[in-house]
Amino acid sequence: MNTASRSGDRVRVAVIGAGIGGTAMAALLRRIGHNVTVYEQYERFVPAGGGIHLSPNLMRVLRHLDVHRHVLFTGQEPGAFLNRDAVSGETLYGLPLGECAHRRFGAPFVALRRGVLHLALMSTVARDSVQWGKRLAGLDWRGDSIELAFADGSRAAADVVIAADGLRSRVRSILCGHEQPVFSGQVAFRGSYPREGLKGLHVDDLTKWWGDETFVLSYWLDRARRDFYFAAMMPQSTWPSEASFVPADVDEMRAAFRHFHPDVRRMLAGAPPGSVAKWALFERPPRFEFGTGRVILIGDACHPMRPFMSQGAAMALEDAAMLTRAVLGEGDFMRALQTFADARRERLTRVHRVSAANTFMRGETDPQWVFGYDVLSADASARLPALYTPSASAMAA
Ligand SMILES: Cc1cc2nc3c(=O)[nH]c(=O)nc-3n(C[C@H](O)[C@H](O)[C@H](O)COP(=O)(O)OP(=O)(O)OC[C@H]3O[C@@H](n4cnc5c(N)ncnc54)[C@H](O)[C@@H]3O)c2cc1C
After folding, report:
1. What DSSP string describes 292-348?
2. Measuring from atom 50 of ligand 1, which residue has the nearest CA?
3. Ligand 1 pocket, 75 CB below 6 A?
4. Which residue has better confidence, 397 or 173?
5. Where would I find the FAD-binding domain in this sequence (predicted)?
6. Spatial distance between the Cα atoms of 12 and 150, rounded to a whole number of angstroms
7. How many C-beta atoms lie closer than 10 Å to residue 395's C-beta?
8. Could you say which of 39, 219, 229, 373 is catalytic?
9. Which run of H or of E encompasses 287?
10. By three-state DSSP, how is residue 60 classified?
11. Which fold has domain 12-55+115-180+285-372?
């Protein structure tokens, strides 16, 4: 018997990476009766990253996992998403959010620290199902079983491996060869600081300032609007480092945005030296590798993209939900892989393309296709049954 089609709880699923997608994947598969172990390279939980947007399509998955209240309680629900000209400050397009997001997209829009989202997702995974300090080094196919080899010399066996190991996925390089993600030619200065640093400047809830080749995204990280966050993006020809980010030179940042509206210059001026990091933005071409046989790739392991639509984490969570539906419908991971890939390809291609173009909401836009998408029920069929949320009306609670 093929172990990948063993019934319910006897299939041993190994999820590689306890990041955004891996934690959700583990929680969703355990709910439908699978025996899941998550292997994470870090020794313990590390709440990394700066700010993040949780768009309504992502919030639907959090609601299904019953952790939406936590992020709603901690993060801010912007009243609107303003898009302004970088120099004149003229509003190019404003998308009403707050209560409007609930009504129009069926779920809220929230901005907060990435670590808060990550912690909320960690809380959905049983403690005994995460093995920390396990950096995957290799995979060996042994008949119906797959043996996992870790950098610490230990080994484990699984029937199915789900790669949620992010941008530099080890699983991906085992399957497809060691091809590094591509530097996009863009960098982002990311920083946050307390409200006092703004020295009385009024800052709207969520704004993207659009220049020709340079952009600044700014928002509050918390419900009380105490901590302010910005990501200032600009072109850079090379990234001469192995690291994803390096400490930023704030003088370089301020010089690069000196032609921006005075409000933006004041926001950037408020960042204390040492508080800003310069991130390289990586991507892969949209030839998605969803995996082969009993190894399945989700999230950044499958489709890293530029962050200009703020949809990377959303796509990882949508993947986890759609794969769960395919497993439920097909009853077998091998068949589920194809159903999952077919259900995801078109949407991922579109989000990847629009993110790369960096045009989303620059002018009048209908964002329904992104924010109104319901991954829990889209394209429902016997092979792809809908996932129902027990208390769909509880989103605002
Ligand atoms: C500047 C910037 C801003 C962004 N803003 C947003 C935003 O506003 N909204 C949004 O939705 N997305 C945003 N994103 C994207 C988002 O953060 C990622 O797309 C998302 O975290 C991907 O989730 P993942 O689970 O695939 O990978 P990750 O969350 O990166 O998790 C990967 C996990 O795998 C582990 N791992 C790696 N290798 C191994 C190994 N060999 N063995 C074991 N474990 C391993 C890692 O330690 C990590 O825990 C942004 C990205 C950037 C760069």
Report:
1. ETTEEE-GGGT----GGGS-HHHHHHHHHHHHHHHHHHHSSHHHHHHHHHHHHHHHH
2. 307
3. no
4. 173
5. 11-326
6. 17
7. 19
8. 219
9. none
10. helix
11. FAD/NAD(P)-binding domain (3.50.50)
